[in-house]
Design goal:
alpha/beta; 7% strand
């Protein structure tokens, strides 16, 4: 039960809390952004307003309002709201809360909402401990995660919950948060004003992260000189204060999370699309975040074969050299080697004939019938090989080629390999056509070897 001392303690905690915490709204009316998830008429909004929430997992990047929504639920529900840390919590802690929830439900009929922030940090045994309680509605789970729950959360828990995805805040929502914090009594209480350029900079640096925007505002306010303030003229926070408070912009990038895969995917697709500027941008995002240079080089190597292939065989050698540089040189110098290799494969003519060809051949091998090696192609170092058909040795022919079946019966040339009309690959196909045409008029004598 709250008393005078608990009120005093709450006040002291709030006074010393970061601006982003002090500005956390207590109701849906004060919640900013996420109209698609919690706007008028949405399932989540109706569930919160009518206190009929069922288990839900809130999924989205940092600073998009997941914890704020959980606090709003805590303030509006008539159910008991309890929280377990996914970082320090144990299976024992979960079982204790579940037992208390069951006792509460049986004795008073009161429901329990269990909030687990960063639920993806729970291991499988901890997530399994929640399963029956969620299934029986002994507890209503509210999980929050920055990682894709379909990969990181037990599929059984997912099937018993509703996943609500939150998006990075749009610039207008971030501006609303910042302007509100300037005037709110729990925020900067009108002691500061903010230049338009400074506001634009805060919004740009935040990158859709509301918490980051409020933290930038708070730090920038600490850089301003309070002695310049008067009752009529508050201290102005300038763009210089904002930049001083943010000496280095850190864009979101988690080397084990969704952002990691999104950025590398954008990098690969930019090389495939032959866009050098986009290739350099996504490469810079990875380098700036400290991504393993060998990981980047490996992806360039894969791309060199998958999307360039024999349209430019040199691409694979350049990519391999970049990987070697990542091994022996490392950052910061190997950034140049990575950029050179990435730009080479980006600008190279494209062909996916190697990837498409081997995948088609593998599909045939795995699902097609067993096909025998033609007798004249078999190894001749065995008894009975004298009965094999005659192998035509290409070097015995003027063009270095002779018309001969190499595929097993039932397959025809062109089944797997489809040459691209670009680069070395196209040139060789054209040259081979000319060579084979000339061989029809200038043939030599076959000489089957014993190999």
């Amino acid at each position: 039960m709250d008393n005078l001392f608990s009120d005093i303690e709450r006040y002291k905690r709030n006074v010393n809390a970061p601006l982003a915490v002090r500005m956390r709204p207590q109701t849906l009316e004060g919640y900013v952004g996420q109209a698609q998830a919690v706007g008028e008429g949405s399932w989540l909004r109706r569930a919160i307003e009518h206190d009929t929430l069922s288990s839900v997992i809130l999924y989205g990047p940092a600073g998009t309002g997941k914890t704020t929504l959980a606090r709003i639920i805590a303030n509006t529900t008539h159910a008991e709201f309890v929280e377990v840390s996914a970082i320090t919590g144990t299976v024992k802690d979960l079982r204790r809360e579940i037992e208390a929830a069951e006792s509460r439900l049986l004795s008073t009929g009161r429901r329990t909402i269990l909030f687990v922030d960063e639920i993806h940090r729970f291991n499988r045994s901890q997530q399994d401990a929640l399963l029956h309680a969620v299934e029986d509605r002994t507890v209503i789970l509210v999980g929050a995660t920055t990682e894709n729950p379909y990969f990181e959360v037990n599929s059984a828990l997912i099937s018993r919950s509703r996943v609500v995805e939150l998006q990075p805040l749009d610039d207008g929502s971030v501006r609303t948060l910042v302007r509100r914090a300037l005037d709110d009594p729990h925020g900067l209480a009108g002691a500061f004003s903010l230049s338009d350029e400074a506001l634009d900079t805060i919004v740009s640096l935040a990158g859709g992260d509301g918490r980051a925007a409020l933290t930038s505002l708070e730090l920038a306010s600490q850089m301003a000189d309070p002695s310049d303030a008067t009752s009529e003229h508050p201290v102005t926070i300038t763009v210089d204060h904002v930049l001083e408070a943010n000496p280095r912009r850190g864009l979101p990038y988690d080397k084990s999370g969704d952002m990691h895969y999104d950025v590398i995917s954008a990098f690969i697709k930019s090389m495939r699309g032959s866009d050098p500027d986009a290739t350099l941008y996504w490469l810079a995002r990875m380098i700036d975040a400290g991504e393993d240079p060998k990981f980047i080089a490996r992806r360039i190597m894969v791309h060199a074969s998958e999307d360039v292939g024999n349209a430019d065989p040199q691409a694979l050698l350049v990519a391999e050299a970049a990987f070697r540089s990542a091994e022996v040189i490392g950052y910061p110098e190997c950034r140049i080697n990575l950029a050179q290799a990435a730009l080479y494969v980006c600008l190279a003519p494209k062909s996916n004939a190697a990837e498409a060809g081997i995948d088609a051949a593998l599909a045939e091998v795995r699902s097609g019938p067993r096909r025998e090696v033609p007798s004249y192609l078999r190894d001749r170092h065995r008894p009975g090989s004298d009965s094999y058909g005659s192998y035509l040795y290409p070097h015995d022919y003027a063009a270095g080629w002779v018309d001969q079946r190499y595929l097993p019966e039932g397959l025809v040339r062109g089944t797997f390999y489809h040459v691209s009309p670009r680069g070395w690959e196209a040139w060789r196909e054209e040259s081979i056509g000319r060579e084979r045409g000339s061989s029809c008029d200038n043939t030599g004598k076959a000489s089957p070897p014993n190999g």
